[in-house]
Design goal:
Layout lengths: L8 H9 L17 E7 L3 H14 L4 E4 L15 E2 L6 H21 L10 E5 L2 H16 L5 E4 H7 L13 E5 L3 E2 L2 H14 L3 E3 L4 E7 L2 E7 L2 E10 L5 H7 L7 E10 L9 E4 L4 E5 L5 E11 L7 H14 L8 E11 L6 E4 L5 E5 L9 H14 L13 H4 L5 H4 L5
Parallel strand pairs: 1-2, 1-11, 2-8, 4-13, 11-18
Antiparallel strand pairs: 3-7, 4-6, 5-6, 9-10, 10-11, 12-15, 12-16, 13-14, 14-15, 17-18
The structure holds flavin-adenine dinucleotide.
The site of flavin-adenine dinucleotide (FAD) has 40 residues, from helix 2, strand 12 and strand 16.
Length: about 425
């Protein structure tokens, strides 16, 4: 392990007394070596977590993470930070709940404050049909061991201050996951990067993968903007660009890429202490520690790699917000952006080795992969190191698209973030 200054009260005081000269960079600016045991493509949460778990759980340190831009600059740094595990099917419930339990102790494990805030998450029902489905879902989730409570409209209004008593989309009830919440997205990327670096892993930014070296149907190296790098295995975690990378190896993935947008308002005093999602209006909202409202909406269902926002979705998100909380109508938007999401037919992920031996993918995270980062990292690292799928990721196979054994969370849990 490379020595690093721990984060604690004493080091903060020493840092202050040294005029902040005590602090080292959180990770080295590594130069690419000729070859590695494992190369991870993509310095988002999934790639960095995989690198960390390869070292921390499997003792593999001759590993590089190649990132074409800066780490966390993809969807990991663009998402609305909602973390929850209220999924319908047992396979996904087990997977996402494992991720949530890891998030609950991640700050301690990585010695980095990821600002995990267990503030609960509400999904609102806006008609009797949704309410009945929600009751059913709450029971199924509880059977899966996931904390989940159905509340009637009175319970929802008692728990969420400021909710419009007379919205255009009437509120019939709500599903609460008390353990759900948010975490600071950049901090998750930085925490894994710092911990991976401490284990000796090379994090190489500004290094774009442009091709593969394949020998006898096996991956033997990656071509990059900084030259050829040999490797034994490759883990690809590039979210919306998964199909691009797959094409470089002659593969086609069951993935479609869409832009998903988010919005932030000017900051106000603390007024919303939970996450509220309203599938009928398409909007969801939470408040950051700085006071800004973070607002999201649905996928722009137009296949695109254009990583920018647009006015129709801004209007839709604003309409939803103002219907739920009319008092926010005078807030100004400060920023709007988009990320490119990798969506599978069943809204479940893929963590599996591809038809090219040694070339693994972690993709299909769609609009909800931030909450999965610890579990995705553990499972991909396990597969790369042990040569077999992690039991938690048994459902996340390529095979299911051939056999039809889909885990259709799009239909069941109505996946949104
Ligand atoms: C607006 C928005 C809101 C969202 N809200 C939520 C939410 O509230 N909760 C939730 O759970 N999820 C949410 N998500 C989804 C979540 O952000 C993603 O599923 C998750 O961050 C994916 O992480 P990743 O590490 O796989 O990908 P990324 O973080 O996108 O990282 C992939 C990296 O690969 C790099 N890369 C791409 N091509 C190459 C190449 N050729 N060579 C080298 N590097 C390359 C990119 O630069 C990028 O940094 C949201 C997404 C968006 C866009």
């Amino acid at each position: 392990m490379r020595p690093r200054t721990p984060f604690n009260a004493w080091s903060l005081i020493r840092g202050g007394l040294s005029r902040q000269r005590l602090w080292q960079p959180q990770w080295r600016k590594a130069e690419p070596k000729k070859s590695y045991d494992v190369v991870i493509i993509g310095g988002g949460g999934h790639g960095l977590a995989t690198a960390y778990y390869l070292a921390a759980r499997h003792g593999l340190r001759n590993v590089a993470v190649l990132e074409k831009g800066w780490i966390g600059g993809g969807n990991t740094g663009r998402n609305t930070t909602v973390i929850r595990s209220n999924y319908f099917y047992p396979e996904s419930a087990a997977f996402y709940d494992y991720a949530l339990t890891q998030y609950e102790q991640l700050s301690r494990e990585l010695d980095y404050n990821i600002m995990f805030s267990r503030r609960g998450m509400w999904v609102l029902a806006h008609d009797p049909h949704q309410r009945d489905r929600m009751r059913h879902s709450a029971n199924a989730m509880r059977l899966n061991g996931v904390d989940s409570e159905f509340h009637d409209a009175g319970g929802v209004y008692a728990a969420i201050p400021g909710l419009n008593p007379d919205p255009r989309h009437r509120i019939w009830g709500g599903l609460l996951q008390p353990r759900g919440g948010t975490a600071r997205h950049d901090a998750v990327a930085w925490a894994y990067a710092r911990a991976a670096d401490a284990h000796g892993i090379d994090i190489i930014e500004q290094c774009e993968v442009t091709g593969f070296e394949l020998v006898g149907g096996r991956v033997a190296g990656v071509k990059t903007s900084r030259g050829m790098i040999g490797c034994g295995k490759v883990g690809v975690a590039v979210a919306g660009h998964s199909s691009d990378i797959a094409r470089l190896a002659g593969l086609t993935l069951p993935i479609q890429s869409y832009a998903l947008q988010a919005f932030v308002t000017e900051p106000v005093k603390p007024c919303l202490d939970t996450v509220v999602m309203s599938p009928a209006t398409g909007a969801y909202v939470s408040q950051t520690d700085k006071g800004e409202l973070v607002l999201g909406a649905g996928l722009d269902l137009y296949l695109s790699y254009a990583q920018r926002g647009n006015l129709p979705w801004m209007e839709r998100a604003a309409q939803g917000l103002v219907d739920l909380f009319p008092q926010f109508s005078r807030l100004r938007f400060l920023r709007q952006w988009a990320g490119i999401c990798d969506v599978t037919r069943d809204s479940s992920p893929i963590i599996d080795e591809s038809a090219v031996a040694g070339l693994h993918f972690s993709c299909g995270w769609g609009t909800g992969g931030f909450k999965a980062i610890p579990a995705g990292g553990v499972c991909l690292a396990h597969h790369l190191a042990a040569g077999e799928r992690h039991p938690l990721a048994a459902f996340a196979s390529f095979e299911r698209f051939a056999t039809g054994r889909l885990v259709d969370e799009a239909g069941a849990a109505g996946i949104a973030h």
